[in-house]
Write a structure and sequence with these properties.
The protein has 334 residues and is an alpha/beta fold. It folds into two domains: 1-33, no CATH class; 34-332, TIM Barrel. The protein contains ten helices and twelve strands. The strands form two sheets. The chain has a ten-stranded mixed beta sheet with strand order 1-2-3-4-7-8-9-10-11-12, with helices on one face. A two-stranded antiparallel ribbon has the order 5-6. Helix 4 (150-163) links the parallel strand 7 (135-140) and strand 8 (171-175). Helix 3 crosses helix 4, helix 5 runs parallel beside helix 7 and helix 8 (255-268) packs parallel to helix 9 (290-302). It is globular. It starts with 20 loop residues before the first helix and ends with a helix. Bound molecules: S-adenosyl-L-homocysteine and iron/sulfur cluster. S-adenosyl-L-homocysteine is lined by residues 90-91, 141, 145, 174-176, 199, 244, 246, 276, 278-279, 281, 320-321.
Length: 334
Amino acid sequence: MERALFEKGISGWEQVTTLPKSFRTMLSERIPWMSLRESIVLESRKKDTKKAILECEDGSKIETVLMQNARGHWSICVSSQVGCAMGCTFCATGKMGFTRNLSTDEIVDQFRFWRSHLDTNLSSGEVGESRNSLISNVVFMGMGEPLANYDAVRDSIVLLLRSTSLGPTRITVSTVGLLPALRKLLADPLWPSVRLAISLHSADAESRKRLMPSSFDSFLDDLVTWTRLYFERNEERRRHLTFEYILLRGVNDREEDARKLLLFSRRVGKVRVNLIPYNSTANDYREMDEKEALRFLLTLKRGGVMATIRKAMGKDIAAACGQLVTRVLSRDRD
Ligand code: SAH
Ligand code: SF4
C-alpha cells in the first residue's frame, strides 16, 4: 500500500488496482490521497524554479520549491513546520512565528506533490527544458526548523529512502544548530546518514546572538565539541557536513568576519562552508555585491577552507524561506 503512494501515474486510491475494490472504496472515503492541496504555483522567468503554496487540511499554508539542477534533474526544498519559533532576524519565516509542526505525511507529500506535478506538466512541455522527471535531491530548507520537529522529519526521511530512489547523500537537513537535537541524532540508530547543513551565519558569539536569538554565548564552542563527536562516529561523513553563511552587507561580511570564520573552520577541521547570497525580505538587511562576496570567498580559500557561493535561483518569484507564503498571506489580508 505504501509503495502505491509513490507510484508514477497513480493519483488516487481507486487506481491502486493491486488492492481489492471494496478496500479501495473504503480508503477513498476515509483517507485523503494527499494531505496537502495546491493553492498557488509560481514559475521563475527562466523556468528553472517553481514555488508552490500548499494548503494543509487545517487550512495552514506552507511553501515548497522545485529547482532544476545541473544534470537536468530536480531538487526540491521542503518545509518541516508551519512558521518557525527560532526568530532569525533575516528570515521571513522567523517573522511569522510558530504555528505547528508538520506531520510525516505532510512532509513526504511535498515530495509526492512535485512528483505528480512534474508527471503532469512535463508531458505537456510546461516545465523547464528538461523532460526528465527525476527528483534527485531533497533539502529541508523551507519553512521551519527541522530538528525542532525531530521525529516527523526523521520518519519522513526514512520513508523517502524506503520508497524512492533517493540515497541518504541526496537528502540535506539544514538546521539553525539545535544542539540537544544534534546530540540526540548522534546516538540515534534510526537517524539516517543524510547530509547536514548547519546555519552558522557568524563565527562571533555576540553577532550570532543578534542575528539568531536561539544562539547563546557558548554555542560556537559547543558546536566544535559536537562536530568532534560527529566526525569520531562518522569519519566518512566529513564531506557531508556544511556550514551555511548568509552574506549580509555591513553585518557579517567584513574581512574580520571572514577571518573569524576561517579560524572557526580550522578549529572544526576540514569542513565545507557554503556562502549564501541574502534574499531581501523586508529591506532590513542588504545583499553583498558579487565582487565583495568573491573577496570574502577568497579569504576563506586562501586560508585552506573549502568554500563555495550558492547560486541564487528563482529570485523573481520571492526566494528564500517563507517569503512566498508571507507575501500571499499579507495580500490575503489587504
Ligand atoms: N531552519 C533551518 C532550515 C530552514 S532555513 C535553518 O535555519 O537552517 C534554510 C536556510 O535559508 C538557512 O540557512 C537560513 O539561514 C537561510 N535563509 C533564511 N532566510 C534567508 C534569506 N532571507 N536569504 C537567504 N537565506 C536565508
Ligand atoms: Fe527558522 Fe531557519 Fe528561518 Fe531561522 S532561518 S527563523 S531557524 S526557518
